[in-house]
Amino acid sequence: MIFRVETFYENGMTPSNEGGVLLRRGLRFTIPNQYGQFLKAILSPIPLDSYQWNVVDEESYIVKDGQLDRLLFPESTVIDGHQFAELLTQHEHYLIFVDIKAFHSNMSSEIVTYEDFLHSTCEFALLVIDSQDVTIYCKDPQMLNSLYENAFLHEFEEIAYITSHNDSMTRLSCW
């Protein structure tokens, strides 16, 4: 496993090769393609109770007796932080596609692009694609650093910050 060492700046910036500074938008990494409690592990640095969680077009399952049982989130919905935390800790799950966004207050509007995210009340977006590829966008630089360190501690792979220079996503969606 190879990790790139980066200097942590208090303002969430990293130096660029062009001599300027790049704003960190988020991070990406891979998780094992297996059953587990990966949402709980990924989100452990975040105070889940502080947010309303908007789940959109998700396809992930609760695992019961070693088999896929039912959808982790049966429909697109908004879940309060307490219920969300309970759901993540009560069951082992298998993630296929996940699109979860966190708000301190009610969802302001649909978030399709990174620019929509910036201008919304959304604080945090978590996307899982094809069971392994995790992308996180986060407005709080300190929380982003905590999420990076957490991914490293959980031995997730291919951990890298997303900046304006390397952000290849055109939509903030798992589909």
What would your notes on this structure say?
The model is unreliable at 1-19 (pLDDT under 50). A hairpin with a 2-residue loop joins strand 4 (59-64) and strand 5. This protein has 175 residues and is an alpha+beta fold. The protein has helices at residues 38-42, 81-90, 114-118, 141-153; strands at 13-15, 21-30, 52-55, 59-64, 67-71, 77-80, 92-103, 122-129, 133-138, 157-163. It has one domain. Strands 1, 2, 3, 4, 5, 6, 7, 8, 9 and 10 form a 10-stranded antiparallel β-sheet that branches. The protein contains 4 helices and 10 strands; from the N terminus they run E-E-H-E-E-E-E-H-E-H-E-E-H-E.
Please describe the biggest sheet, giving its number of strands, its sense, and whether it closes into a barrel: 10 strands, antiparallel
Low-pLDDT sequence parts: 1-19
Determine the number of helices (DSSP H or I, runs of at least 4 residues).
4
Could you tell me how far the N terminus lies from the C terminus, measured between alpha carbons in angstroms? 28 Å
Order of helices and strands: EEHEEEEHEHEEHE
Give the helix proportion (percent range): 10-25%
Shape: globular
Give a topology summary.
Blueprint: E1 13-15, E2 21-30, H1 38-42, E3 52-55, E4 59-64, E5 67-71, E6 77-80, H2 81-90, E7 92-103, H3 114-118, E8 122-129, E9 133-138, H4 141-153, E10 157-163
Antiparallel strand pairs: 1-2, 2-9, 2-10, 3-6, 3-7, 4-5, 4-7, 7-8, 8-9
Quick tags:
175 residues, alpha+beta, ten-stranded antiparallel β-sheet, 4 helices, globular
